[in-house]
User: What shape does this take?
Amino acid sequence: MKNIDPHILVIFGASGDLTKRKLVPALYALYKQKLLPEQFAVLGVSRTNLSDEEFRSRMKEFLPTNSELDAFLDMLYYQPLSTSESYEYPILHDRLTSIAKANSIAENYIFYLSTPPSLYEIIPANLSNVGLNKPNDGFRRLIVEKPFGTNLETAKELNKNLLNYFDEDQIYRIDHYLGKETVQNMLVTRFSNGIFEPIWNHNFIQHVEITSAESLGVEDRGGYYDHSGAMRDMVQNHLMQLVGFVAMEPPVVIEADAIRNEVLKVFQSLRPLTEDDVASQVIRGQYIESKIKGEPVKGYRQEKGVDTESRTETFFGMKFFIDNWRWSGVPFYIRTGKKLPTRVTEVVIHFKKPPMHLFGQTPFSIDAGNQMVIRIQPDEGILLKFGMKVPGAGFNVQTVNMDFHYSDLADKHLPSAYERLLLDCMQGDATLYSRGDAVEKTWEYVQPILNAWKNNSDIPVYGYPAGSWGPDVADDLVETGTWRYPCKNLTDDGNYCEL
Ligand code: BG6
Assistant: This one.
């Protein structure tokens, strides 16, 4: 592990949910593992008027009590500030200098933007007004939460604006999917084993399926979600990053730019969609009221903050191609949705069938073929499905599973995505952060979908009962077989799993 220089982490939007639910717990986990530098402080910043003590006690509620807790809380400070007002920033500057002096911390700062996106344009400018953007006296890094724009144009604008004040190598665009241990393990699985990589191409792979299902609905985020929808919320960012890791060529070295160059090349090879393709290759759906386990469940349009006539998609499914040497002709399928039967994210590699059916049609549906399931969450692990002889007369074949579960590594702590990503940024390692050009490329790719939906109101939004696997028509996307219908446990699948 690289050395981490003493620094102060400034969280803008510190009174929000992300800070108490994800960021501070991740910092506490790092603290307990002794991964934070000894000279370290967190300065929470937002408009709410709180003292240091009040901020600490708010954070305490979300942290497990432990003998180290008080010492950790002492590292937290708070500064009320109207973040949109440039005249307030000298106050921030002074506060940072005084915390740095009191704790003998060099003037190294990480600024974390966990605010509404409208402030992404303003805070960097205000930091620059007081010289807090320039790495003269120490490092200055800027972490930006998604969304990075809401379409290609706004994404470009945002990048341009950030680059007015910070250099690309100071900007860390967070996509928490890249922080997931199992997502990074895709690179290790692919590039550290002699057995997988030689068959990881169009010669052996029939198709690739990526599912990210959630059983929850929009909860209390209806106001945000109704303007976003599954495409902007999950596909343009998290799912595209998964596609990048599944499909990329081996990087020359394990370094930020080498890896990110390969991911970018995947995005550059995506076969552009026309607005007509959208009608045939993209399915959008919205959950409607139903009963789950006998209990009535609201439809999306009845959720708080959602327009009662909303056409926002809570389900998204798509077929697409990557036009490069490795993936020529291999269909990729992705789907994501809210209020599906279970919470699961996985990548399924479907291998081609053997050249002939020597053993006839048997319960081992030849159509299913061999599958490698890379389970991102939950029950993280890897599953290989293949045919074995059923003991006894004849040559009947059944599907069997070979599985590895991370939970078997009982002595290993599985770091949360935010733990990993915060630590990386502290070390100045941007490998698992999205680069500006890649973000723009994915927006460029999905823009025709947004355009088609906007320009052609005939493209249906299919209703699906909450608790089901999305609209039936999504099944028709997959020409060779069906989606896998995964359950909570990696090795189980089928239409009827636990809810
Ligand atoms: C967030 C989306 O980025 O990712 C949420 O805004 C979604 O809508 C979440 O629920 C999913 O993340 P995870 O880690 O729970 O799969």
Observations:
- The chain has a mean pLDDT of 93.
- The chain has 14 helices and 17 strands.
